[in-house]
User: What shape does this take?
Amino acid sequence: MRCAFCGFTESRVLDSRPVEEGRSIRRRRECQQCVRRFTTYERLEEVPLIVVKTDNRRELFDASKILNGLIKACDKRTIPVAVLEQIVNDIERDLRNSLEREVSSKRIGELVMQYLRKVDQVAYVRFASVYRNFEDISTFMEEIRKLQKEIYESREYGENGEINGIIGEEA
Ligand SMILES: [Zn+2]
Assistant: This one.
């Protein structure tokens, strides 16, 4: 950071504090040549994330839209809003980490499904049915069937459908 008085490039930072709710950092510096003090503001560069919709219209990424979609999909379920907010945060982080300036709404939908699936199967199917706009009932049933198979396997059912460890207990 160049000294405001003599132009020397080395300075010592005396104090740093975030300002503007953390969007920039104010630094009090002392020039290592002329020893005069000056203040700099370093602004975090916020790269706008653009969403490309299916009709190719562009709009600014809006996390609240994802949250609203999630809340709708989770209607009458028992998922705390904090969990949904975490999903939104994770998605936004994934998108920003990808360093792409533009992201398709399709990609966002896929991410939502990927996260929602781990949290609530019913909400996942609801979201998927609206989002994917299933062309016909057989596509939808196929999705349900895949999901049931997953639930089935994740609960460690036995080969004949009995839950392992419970077989025989009720006899
Ligand atoms: Zn100086």
About this structure: Confidence is low (pLDDT under 50) at residues 158-171. Residues 3, 5-6, 8, 31, 33-34, 36 surround zinc ion (CB under 6 Å). The beta strands are 11-19, 24-31, 37-43, 50-52, 58-60, 102-104.
